[in-house]
Amino acid sequence: MKTLVTGFIFIVAIFSIAGIVEADIPDLVGNWTGPYTEYTGDTGFHEQDSGFFFINITEQKDRIFIGYSMYSNNGTKVTHDVAGVISADGTQVSLTEQDNGYSTGRIIGPDELELTYLTDNEPISVAIDRFFRIS
Fold first, then answer.
1. How many CB atoms lie within 10 A of CB 59?
2. How many Å apart are CA 76 and CA 45, to the nearest integer?
3. pLDDT for 112
4. Which residues pair with 94 in a beta bridge?
5. How far apart are the first and last CA of the chain?
6. 132 has pLDDT over 60
7. How many CA atoms are closer than 13 Å to the CA of 70, on its beta-carbon side?
8. Total structural domains in the chain?
9. I want to staple 32 with a disulfide (CB 3.0 to 4.6 A). Which of 83, 107, 115, 131 is the partner?
10. Is 10 a domain residue?
11. pLDDT in tens, 79-114
């Protein structure tokens, strides 16, 4: 009987360990852009089409990635370094833009992300971004 119980526990342990498999890590390296809706404390609500705001992910090691964001402000190109992480299940992403705020969101597909952006810099700002990989 002791052998039977020990064998059963061993089999359960093997199947339990086999069930612990880390999800495939999505490759996010590339140039991303897309439309967004935003509220900014000084100008209110507005929407922007694709091709205005870009995130370029230049390097990824496992679940950590780096790159920069880029947009134009009154004809001047503005860039911010970004760093981010992918969740263990490969479906969520969080990133920070240096001196500019934080985004969290989900990986919708291999070439599509949805992010929500927050900053408490002056003026406060929030946005919902839909990004598509363009290269």
1. 10
2. 22
3. 98
4. 85, 104
5. 62
6. yes
7. 14
8. 1
9. 131
10. no
11. 999 999 999 999 999 999 999 999 999 999 999 999
Structure tokens at 41: 């404390």
SS3 content of the chain, % helix, strand, coil (to 5): 15, 55, 30
Task: Report the CATH number that the domain containing residue 47 is assigned in CATH.
Answer: 2.40.128.20
Residue 20 domain-assigned (yes or no): no
Q: Residue 73 has what pLDDT?
A: 84
In tens, the pLDDT along 39-63 reads 999 999 999 998 899 999 999 999 9
User: For residue 63, what are the CA distances in angstroms to 27, 28, 35, 84?
Assistant: 9, 10, 25, 8
Q: Does 1 map to a domain?
A: no
Close Cβ partners of 123 (under 8 Å, ≥ 6 residues apart): 40, 41, 42, 43
pLDDT on residue 2 = 59
Residue 100, token pair as written in the block? 């500019």
Q: Under 8 Å CB-to-CB from 47, ≥6 apart: which residues? A: 35, 36, 37, 38
Is the pTM for the entire model greater than 0.85? no
Range of the domain at 97: 29-133
